[in-house]
Amino acid sequence: MPNRQICFRFLCTVLALITISVSAHAAVVEGLYSARIAVDSQSQKNQNQGFREGLGQVLVKVRGNTDVLKARPIRQAMNRATQFVKSFSYDLVNAELYLSIDYDQSKIVDLLRDADFPVWGQRRPETLVWLAIEPEPLQKRRIMSQDSESKIHQSMTHTADQRGIDLVYPIWDLTDLQSLSVYDVWGAFGQTLSDASYRYGVTSILSARIYQYQAVPKVPQLQELPISDTQEPIELNNQQPVQVDASFREGQWVVDWLSIENGDFTSGQFGVEQFSDIGPDLINVVADLLANKYAIDTKGTEQALQSVDVTITNLSSLEKYVAVSNFLSSLSVVNTASLVKQQGSAGTFSLTLFGDPQDLFNALSLDKKIQRTVDEFGQAIGDSEFIWLN
Questions:
Q1: Which one of 174, 205, 307, 378 counts the least CB within 10 Å of its CB?
Q2: pTM here?
Q3: pLDDT over 90 for what percent of the chain?
C-alpha cells in the first residue's frame, strides 16, 4: 500500500508539472541589441544616421516603450550613438543596401538604468492573436486569419519585431473552429478565448474586433454585449470602462481590444483613419501592457538592492548547478547570484535583485526550464522552491 501511495503521488506531481509547463510558454527573444537599417550608401553621414536610428530601435525594444526616446539623457546619448556600437556590417539584399548593427548590451542597459528607465529582459510572453472584422456596416462579420488578411498580419509581425515581442497566430484547424466562433471573438468572451488558447501554451492573449464607426453606433460597447445563457460576463481587473471616443468620424476604423495576461483582463478602444494602421497600433497596445508588467524598474535600487533566497531541486550534476547559476545570472532582474547551500540534488541560491521578489517570480514564470515545486494536488510548495526541468 505505501508503495502504491508513493507511485500515486509521484504520478500526480508529474502530471501537475506537465500541466504547468504547457500553460507557461514564453520566448527567449533574440536580437534585442541588434538593428538592421536601410541606407542609401556607405558614406560616413549615412553610417552615423544608421547608428542613431538603430540605437533608437534597440532602446525601444529593451525598454519596452517608445517613451524612452523623449527623455533628455537618451536624446543626448543618441547624438553619440557610435559609442554604443559593438560591430557592424553592410548587406545588399534585392538591390537594397542595409546596415546591420550589434550594440553593446552592457552599455545599453547602463544607459537605461542611469536614465531611470526599466529594462526588459529577453524572456517575454508569447502573445496569441484572435481577430474578427465587420468589413462594412451591416456586412457579415468574419474571422481574420493569416490567409484571409495577410497584410494586417504582416504589419503586426513587423511591429512586433520592432517592439521585441513574439506573436503566435491561430492555425484555424478543426480544433480551433470547434472551440471558437466569430461571435466569441466579436463578443470578447474572455473565458471562451482563454479555453481556446490553452492548446497554444501562451500566457498572453490579444483579441480584437474591427469595424467602421457610425454616427449612431449600432454595435454596443464591449461590456454591454449580450451574453448567452452559457457565457459568463468577463471581469476586468484594474481597468477603466471603455468609452466611445467622441472624436471618431463616420467611416473611421474602430478597434475594440481585449488583453488577457495570466488571467487578468484589460480592454480598450482606439480609432484609425487608415486600415493599414490597425496592426501596428494593436501590437503597440499589447507591447506596452507587457512591458509595464515585466520590465524591471531599477529606480532607487542602487542604494538598497533587495535579496531573496531560492531553492532549486533536481540538480543531479555539477553541470546542472553551473547551468542554473548561469541562468539566474542572466535574468535582467538579478544583479548577483551565488550558491549558499547544497544538500543532495537541491541548491539554495542567494540573489540580489534590481527589482523586487515579484519581478523575479514573474521572470521565472516565463521560462520552461524552471517551475515551482508542487505537491500531489498541484499546489505550490512555498514561495521560493523550484524544480529544474532542463
A1: 174
A2: 0.71
A3: 50
